[in-house]
Amino acid sequence: MNDLFSLKGKVAALSGASTGxxxxxxxTLARAGAHVMLGARSIDKLTDRVAEIRAAGGVAAAxxxxxxxAASITAFFDALDAQFGGADILVNxxxxxxxxxxxxxxxxxxxxxxxxxxxxxxWLMARELTRRVAARRGAGAVVVNVSSITSERTTKGIFPYxxxxxxxxxATRVMALEGAKHNIRVNALAPGYIYTNVSAALLxxxxxxxxxxxxxxxxxxxxxxxxxxxxxxxxxxxxxxTGAIVVVDGGHTVSSL
Length: 257
Description:
alpha/beta; single chain; 7 strands; globular; seven-stranded parallel β-sheet
């Protein structure tokens, strides 16, 4: 059964890998047997994470990556191809938020920054992967877009973030439809509230305790809670799944009002 979730012999590209969820998932992919190429703007943090993965017996490398910049994405995949010969798995994890902003208080620059990173970046990364996979006829690949439960269930003050993740969910479905001809499966992983740089403003606030009580399992998520769902979507265990949004949130999205 373990072989079903194995990534042995696979190459995985991961954006937003320098901190938080991305940093953790890089180790998850490596432990499952994948050769992992880490990308982010902070190359120093990537270098440290690569060293940690290698020390644990994994295979990893890193390259600078700004998902808002098509040229940076091309250079990242060029580095991956030179190092590992091409990607089989893409995890679109890069994401930012704009702080506690409503649609009224948000400025245009912040809107553009969030949408360009969270939505446009995922598209540009998937486009580059697909073009390269199509050139390796029959190779196939898997894309996992990291979404959020805020795509479906919102709270005040995260306007551009919630919009970007809702759009990412639908982009996932359309990519799944269009990517099938290239033997590419596209699914999304939608975590609930886990303490990261993105969620810190809310989870450090005075309403955090009340907020946690709304979660049926009565706790915040932990990075390890994402390991199984990620490996499901990245491996052959989900070979007949595409266009799915897998929610990992302790029941938050099904809790009563």
